[in-house]
Amino acid sequence: MKNKYSIFSLIRNAFSSHENWQRAWRDPEPKKEYDAIIVGGGGHGLATAYYLAKKHKMTNIAVVEKGWIGGGNTGRNTTIIRSNYLWDASAGLYDHALKIWEGLSQELNYNVMFSQRGVMNLAHNLQDVRDLKRRTHANRLNGIDAIWLNTDEVKKFCPIINTSPDIRYPVLGGTLQKRAGTARHDAVAWGYARGADQLGVDIIQNCEVKGIKRDGDQVIGIDTSKGYIKSKKIGVVAAGHSSVLANMAGLKLPLESKPLQALVSEPVKPIIDTVVMSNAVHAYVSQSDKGELVIGAGTDSYVSYTQKGSHNIVEETLRAILELYPIFSRMKMLRQWGGIVDICPDASPIISKTQVKGLYFNCGWGTGGFKATPGSGDLFAHTIANDEPHKLNAAFNINRFVSGDLVDEHGAAAVAH
Amino acid sequence: MFIINCPYCGERDQTEFSSGGEAHIVRPKQPTELSDDEWAEFLFMRKNIKGIQFERWNHSHGCRKWFNVVRDTSNDKIHAVYKMGEKPPVNK
Questions:
Q1: What is the pLDDT of residues A270-321, one digit of tens each?
Q2: Which H or E run includes A354?
């Protein structure tokens, strides 16, 4: 690998005041034709390109991105990584990703700051307790680490939680996945971009797709703001805009796009060294390495592409946060933002071929796609290269909405959608 | 977050309403004769438009009546509101 990052390159560049670092990826003009094109330069799209080049030796490929790489949901999420999903198909998919996360910084020679600080899910009523215990058992049968904590153990693991029985939704216990945690979202996009670029992938930014061209049942190319580009294999990984791109190819998807919000506080000293999620009251909180509390709010109930979200959603989340963590009552919030998430009726993703030959879709990740980035890229690359799904994403085909074989993770996935 | 002009109650905050998703999806007249593809189309497939969308809303914290809204999903501007059973005031 040229320009390998190491302690030696750091020292060498320190002597020249860090003015001679090479750019991490090129800025090429699009060629007339590629063997495959990935539409969408977020984490999933860049990972797909990386694994297409690395594992399937397809190096004459491009990633086209309408804005800048990692500027969509990759840069807008709360960076939580976990694999404690209920159903076998989901457990296989998300744990595949988690296993890749564990070696990703070394593989990419890029520090993605993966931190296995644990993810704790709280139970606030008897049904929560039953559901979370059931999920813990299901996880362990699938080889995924999961333990049940009673209220005292929750308090011991995260002392700032208010476990008083007098609060509106008292903490009755929780589950803990110790291998779960967080990573630096931007670094994931940049690491995959650098890795893919070094394998010869063209990353073309500021290149918006305006149309998808078909010759009968076969896809043949895309119209973009930088001209027409030919390719007989096109993989679309466009998150909230998946339906817009599907419409260009004359397809309809079972998706609804909604704003999902997050916010961060002013930076403070280390106060919470894990990730705590509570789906019943909708409060997700962790602390970034800069010291900001990273808080995930909910989705709006209506379709919108505005990347804003409503204030009442933020208010509900902060109300829950304050009840669970009274210590945060005088914290100031620094920034709030929204991203557009594409939600499937069964809250599971689609990584699939379509009825159009050569056109593949990776979408429907909804509110929880970041955690799956490496696995999603790996499996989508396999699907594109072989024109057949990998066994781990076979259940996540688009035909499940016709056959009825849904992977219903609504409520089952330890998270409110 | 926006204001919706309920045809029965007048202008109210969006938080008083529940979104019912895409409008004018007609329930199949002969459900027993539907193929799996047609069921999938009716139950799951959505236009999910970025732009002018026809949708249903319910004034769930008010009169609890259903009605239709024409809204631009790219900026949340509402172009028209009309009652159930009425013809859309803008071309669909």
A1: 999 999 999 888 889 999 999 999 999 999 999 999 988 899 999 999 999 9
A2: none
H or E stretch at B33? none
Contact A243 B74 (CB under 8 A): no
Contact list in A for residue B74 (CB cut-off 8 A) is: 305-306
Q: Residue A234: what are its φ and ψ, rounded to 5°? A: -130, 125
C-alpha–C-alpha distance, residues A188 and A339, integer Å: 18
The answer to whether A226 and A29 have CB atoms below 8 angstroms apart is yes
CB contact under 8 A, A304 and B19: no
B20 falls within a domain: yes
Residue B92 inside a domain? The answer is no
How many structural domains is chain B composed of? 1
**In a domain? residue B89:** no
Quote ipTM for the complex. 0.94
Domain of residue B10, CATH code: 3.30.2270.10
pTM of this structure: 0.96
Tokens at A105, concatenated: 């910084």
A241, A247, A306: residue with CB nearest B76: A306
Give, for A281, the enclosing helix (H) or strand (E). Answer: none
CA A359 to chain centre: 22
Name A277's bridge partners. A121, A284
CB A267 within 8 A of CB A366: no
Query: Among all chains, which residue has been given the structure tokens 């296989």?
Result: A92
Q: Is residue B91 part of a domain?
A: no
What are φ and ψ of residue A323, in 5° steps?
Answer: -70, -40
The three-state secondary structure class of B19 is: strand
Q: Please enumerate in sequence order all residues whose Cβ is within 8 A of that of B35, keeping only pairs 6 or more positions apart, or say none.
A: none
Which residue range is the domain that position B76 belongs to? 3-83
The answer to whether residues A338 and A76 touch, using CB atoms and an 8 Å cutoff, is yes
Query: How would residue B92 be classed by pLDDT, with cut points 50, 70 and 90?
Result: low
Nearest-by-CA chain A residue for B15: A312
Is some CB atom of chain A closer than 8 A to the CB atom of B3? Answer: no
Residue-wise DSSP of A293-351: EEEEEEE-SS---SS---HHHHHHHHHHHHHH-GGGTTPPEEEEEEEEEEE-TTS--EE
Percent of chain A scored above 70 by pLDDT? 98
Tokens 């699939």 appear where?
A: A352
